[in-house]
Amino acid sequence: MNLVKKTTMWPVALEREVLPASLARAGFFGKELVVWRGDDDVIRVWEDHCPHRSVRLSAGRNLGDSIQCIYHGWRYGKDGTVIEIPALNHEARSDISVNVMSSAVAGGLVWVTKNGGNCTPDNVQAGNGAVLLRPLPINVDADAARAGLQDASDGQLFITPADENACTVFGYAMARGKESEIETARRCNAQLSRLRRRLEAGGTT
Amino acid sequence: MKANEDKAVWNAWYPLGVPQEIRRRNMLRTWLLDNEIDLEIHRTWISVACGGRPLPVCERLGYIWTTLGEPDRLPQSLIEYYEVDRLAMNIWSTPLKCSGLRIVDNVIDNAHFPFVHPGILGDEEHLDLPPYVNEVDADGTLWSCSHQAWLPITNSVAEYTYRISDPYSVILFIHRPCVPGEVQRYDYLGIFAQPVTEEHFIAHKMFSWVREDWMEMRQLRSDQQWISVQDNYVLERHNPKKLPLGNGLEASVPVDSASMAYRDWLLSKDVRYGALHGGAS
Amino acid sequence: MIRLYDYALSGNCYKVRLLLRWLELEYETVCVDFYPGFEHRGEAFLEVNPLGQIPVIEDEGVTIRDAQAILVHLAGNYDKSGKWYPLKQPNLLGPIHSWLAFADGLTATCSAARLHDAMFMDVDIDKARNGAERLLRILDEHLWFRERDGADWLCGSDHPTIADIACFPYVALSEEGGIPQLPYPAIQRWMERFQRIEKFEPMAGMMPLAMPASDRIAGNTGG
After folding, report:
1. Mind listing the domains of chain B with CATH numbers?
2. N or C: less crowded end of chain A, CB within 10 Å?
């Protein structure tokens, strides 16, 4: 198993699980992110924060061309700027913008970088027969998770810190024998869940 | 920050609850401004102390009020509350996970009605809001007037006036229909925050409406709680939980004039408890 | 007519109102002032339900308490489509009832935490939140693998059942009890699907505006 260590980008969602007209959430180094697919089929990742009154954007709606904040209905277009303030004659305000994260899609995962650097995932080794695993949240910090997951199965795991005390494990695994994709996913999910129980109970192996 | 270093906040009165609810819950402990407050329930009165120090107690507008500091006046005054033709009650006392300043900022804002209370306090077909008039009177009380907003449940435009005399409290005056020559009367809603910590408070919601035949206490209470919980959905999704003041952390536009006036008023009183000054948290 | 003893902000009452709405049944409500009135523990209400719990329905002289039992009663007797509680598919009844029991677990954890946080109820809050996390992990895992099988709902194939109705409210309201939803993306997607069911009506504390339609959703799920 290949546990990816040094990296400048982290997965925050499975690409196929970011649905149209839907808002997905992710924790990322103490920040919260909103992940959404526009009507142009492009996936965008923003800080989950409305610059007007600091409400989570993920509490609102994905309207395809924009995210609408639940509080005052402000709409943020694909570039992250305000395209409509309903109570202000529907005016746009291009000077007000959400914090747009640098993101990319590769190997079936949505990746983001930490400080706005270019997001070009190059460490993904999803070859033929690689099965995407269910993202697994773990209530330990990323370093502890890395130590505890060393002996996980074949494939590749990526650990995204959610905050100082929690992380999410993404990854692939290879099918064994005549396993179907879902059987592989189930087997690895069960194994990772076992390791998670140990990790959260305080052990590392 | 230490609450006792914030004069405007420390020297104000705060409600702790309604006497009969305090008795029913046998509530012997509550919190105020990071301090544990002990209650002693006697046959006919309730006394309050903090770390053995007896605190002043006052009953008003249905609530028991106390203060940790030295207020220069009595708690919220609203003589009309006691008019005999009114239906008055505590809608509820409910804890919330953000600064109590956030709820005042929410109450005085009408632009959220169509989105947070659709079909009840507003709808997306009626988004226009005439400009408000915000002024501070000789007593230092902030008034935000001329709030007109479409009210779907009555199919008409309603007018609201807001009175803020303490950082953590606001009273809403709902203008009652009135013919020329008659004295203007109001239905009142009070939102009184009991700050537990800087990011946690108990909202006490006072109701005092002129009684009408259709009014049923349980239904009115239920409807008002419903509206509050719609607001709570937003209030508990703020990040940061404190209210930013004077640092440009939250962008404002002209329809936010009441909110901006409130924030300026808090700044003029140098309110820090529950607020976020400067860039860092 | 069916009579519902109701408190608007109770998730267990809400699930009954939702099914009544989806079955297009007429009913009258008796408003119980649960908080702060505490009427569910008052003499009058204890004669209706000695357990002191809401909701309760009275239907044709029969009194039924317990939200899950009420869902079974209503769907079993009045659902002409036979989809909400598919009596003609006995293989589904076991799974449905296991999720109804799971919903009781959600009441004991997510709902208890919410009553503690919003209404001062005497609850072991750490136990409630830890228990909720355990249940939400189980639910998220179940829903993730259901999606991989091309299924949208907790049980069965093409239509939600009372299992979904029973579990939805306290999952959707969990953050009111300080239980985060962020770690459960499959639950998030299931809640969005649920809110798109025709004639869905949110309860206060859930997103008040309608979800935009998306006819591409089904095609994308697990695809």
Report:
1. 78-276 (3.90.380.10)
2. C
